[in-house]
Specification:
elongated; mainly alpha; 5 helices
């Protein structure tokens, strides 16, 4: 069971390594779009810049980075910022979310959750698809 968790977690890490650069590029486009289209909305731009700074300044784990990207997605959703999300990114996020759902389902079943707890495996966060 331990090896099964390890393989699944490595698959998630591998998928995230492909998503992360695509998300960083998308976030940079959102920053530029917000700065150009809504220069009067300094509050949103400041919140976005703070989240981007946190992404770049820390060596966060995958779940923390996913949370930060989800918060950036909230800014995009609630603002009038709508740069197109690349199809490649959407497909990569779907693959990541599927792997995380499978991993989280493994962690919640008996007796595997006991072994997961012994080896410090925790549920991982999903990307919120908007």
């Amino acid at each position: 069971m331990y090896n099964l968790y390890g393989r699944q977690k490595n698959q998630i890490k591998h998928l995230f390594r492909h998503i992360d650069p695509l998300l960083q590029q998308y976030v940079e486009e959102v920053q530029q779009h917000l700065a150009q289209q809504n220069p009067s909305d300094a509050d949103q731009l400041n919140r976005l810049n703070e989240l981007v700074w946190r992404l770049k300044s820390r060596n966060n784990g995958i779940s923390e980075r996913v949370s930060l990207y989800n918060r950036i997605g909230d800014i995009v959703l609630h603002g009038s910022i709508t740069p197109e999300q690349p199809e490649q990114l959407a497909l990569a996020i779907d693959a990541y979310n599927s792997a995380v759902k499978e991993y989280n389902a493994m962690l919640s079943k008996f007796p595997t959750y006991i072994i997961a707890a012994l080896f410090n495996h925790h549920k991982m966060k999903l990307f919120e698809v908007k």
